[in-house]
Write a structure and sequence with these properties.
By secondary structure, this protein is of the alpha/beta class. It has 13 helices and 15 strands.
Length: 359
């Protein structure tokens, strides 16, 4: 039987232990906010018309440094930010108890948390930004990425009449354009092919197999930089596409992550890597290496997102053949500074981490 003195000492030790458990700050502090970005003009694609985008900004703080990541609510991906907040609340204590380790090791940890790729990406990018700031080293330096050459970014031309689309192209200071369409019209495609600009087509899955057969057998199609995601995703559709044809087919929704590359190889020459699709910068680096080994041309793409998300994607642009990083140029109320895209020219920040600062 314990003496009263032993019981008293035990209670004292337990209270001291409880004090330290509640008083020691977490190794990292995880926080988040939802921001609504107003678009400069209506963004029209095959999936619908959009006046704004809601985004989740994730922050990781340690030793006075803060790293930032972003993911966007996309209805056609069935992304609801409220669900992500529930996920963040579920994993917050686990994330905050992690030691500061190399980002690849941190990604191995978050890969076990059963999180959707969009949210993994936001956490992974925030951690790369934080880690670089703690190490006083940029992502480019940490990964030995040389910044030359860097491809120019395209800017999106929304679905509209062909006359208005051509007018926007001719009046723009950009030199590369991704033209959205929501139906197949051979006459309109011919008009675009005759312009003296670098133009890509993105139908967001609105073409049919018959449309694609016509395109890939028509020599005129070679004038387009690439033709992105021509049909709804799925092997039952892309099986008709051939890499040996005139069209430079580029997979977007068909290319979610590393696991699909071998299957896509006979059908797509190019792939669009988006961080939110594959899960962040860490898996994107691995995906780029594997895609190169398979002979793919690679584009780093984006959603409609702020400079937080664009700065993350931009650091991979020196490793890619194409860039589509116009997201922050489409919104009217950007919240951050970092890497930027000016009339298509990607200006990479060489500040620590991803160089992101909230305004």
């Amino acid at each position: 039987m314990k003496s009263e003195e032993a019981i008293s000492n035990s209670n004292y030790l337990n209270s001291v232990s409880d004090f330290f458990l509640t008083s020691i700050p977490p190794l990292m502090q995880l926080s988040w906010q939802i921001v609504r970005f107003k678009l400069k003009e209506t963004f029209s694609i095959a999936y619908g018309n959009y006046e704004y985008r809601d985004a989740l900004i994730v922050s990781l703080k340690s030793n006075g440094c803060v790293g930032y990541g972003e993911c966007t609510a996309i209805d056609y991906y069935h992304i609801q930010l409220e669900d992500f907040i529930v996920d963040l609340q579920r994993v917050q204590s686990k994330v905050e108890s992690q030691n500061i380790v190399h980002p690849v090791a941190f990604y191995s940890f978050i890969a076990l948390l059963n999180l959707p790729s969009f949210l993994r990406s936001a956490l992974d990018c925030a951690y790369w930004d934080l880690f670089g700031k703690l190490e006083n080293s940029s992502f480019l330096k940490l990964n030995d990425i040389q910044i030359n050459p860097v491809p120019e970014s395209s800017i999106t031309i929304s679905v509209d009449t062909i006359e208005h689309q051509i007018q926007k192209i001719k009046s723009s200071a950009w030199s590369k354009f991704k033209v959205k369409c929501n139906h197949f019209n051979s006459n309109e495609i011919k008009q675009l092919s005759q312009l003296d600009y670098t133009i890509a087509l993105d139908s967001n899955g609105s073409f049919t197999k018959e449309n694609c057969l016509w395109l890939q057998e028509n020599e005129m199609t070679m004038k387009f930089h690439y033709l992105e995601q021509p049909m709804s995703k799925g092997a039952e559709n892309y099986s008709v596409l051939r890499t040996t044809a005139f069209a430079n087919w580029m997979a977007d929704e068909d290319c979610q992550d590393l696991s699909v590359l071998n299957n896509l190889q006979p059908h797509y020459r190019s792939i669009n890597i988006k961080l939110v699709k594959c899960g962040g910068l860490t898996p994107a680096l691995e995906m780029i290496q594997h895609a190169r080994n398979l002979g793919f041309k690679i584009m780093i793409g984006c959603m409609t997102e702020s400079t937080v998300g664009i700065s993350a994607g931009a650091v991979l642009s020196p490793l890619c053949d194409f860039a589509d990083l116009d997201g922050a140029n489409l919104i009217a109320n950007d919240i951050a500074k970092g890497s930027s895209v000016v009339n298509g020219k990607i200006q990479l920040s060489e500040k620590p981490g991803l160089g992101i600062e909230l305004m």
